[in-house]
Amino acid sequence: MVMKESEAEIERDDPVPNFELRGTDEETYTLDDFTEYEAILLVFTCNHCPYAQAKLDLLNDIAEEYDEAAVVGVNSNDADEYPDDSFEAMQEWVEDGRIRYDAYLHDETQGVAKAYGAVCTPDPFLLRNEGKKAQSASERSNGGESRDDTFTLAYHGRLDDALNPDEVPTEFHIHDAIESVLAGEDVDLEFLPSRGCSIKWK
């Protein structure tokens, strides 16, 4: 297990990369599929990492609590080296209720993680829906190479103040960030790097 902290690659208020990824329900998702939400909590995560596992309950609770914010997990790990992060294992975790996000997506090429500058699990990105026209199917880029100005980056950083798996959080930064976005306000948080296992690159 290699510990890594997230790095700021996309500036706040900048458009974020679009994607086209398969979900555990066998459906294909892009940002266009979430335009009904005012915010998306896009979290690069996985099954096997203890740092990611420690945030499962928090992410499940957020998905249940907020009707206007979608929780979307993206697993970019190399499943050949880490079978616990295979697409089939992702489906099992959804089916048995361990993961109850609005969508759990497989970044098989790892192109979306690279486009966002994600480096660890979890690496959370909170996106704001700007209410602009979504890209057409012909404009979408496979692998997250293009920007979609329907969504911009509102916050990138840690979910709470518990940086290690065995710590109990006392402050939930992501709740403050989501509440700000839903209220139409700027997120009043400095960049606070998330901490987790490094993404397992091919």
From TrEMBL:
Region annotation Disordered: where it falls in the sequence: 130-149
GO molecular function: antioxidant activity; oxidoreductase activity
Start and end residues of each Thioredoxin domain: 10-164
Protein origin, superkingdom: Archaea
Pfam families named in the record: AhpC-TSA
Compositional bias (Polar residues): 135-144
Chain segments annotated as coiled-coil in the UniProt record: none
CDD domains: PRX_like1 (cd02969)
Descriptive protein name: Thioredoxin family protein
Source organism of the structure: Haladaptatus pallidirubidus
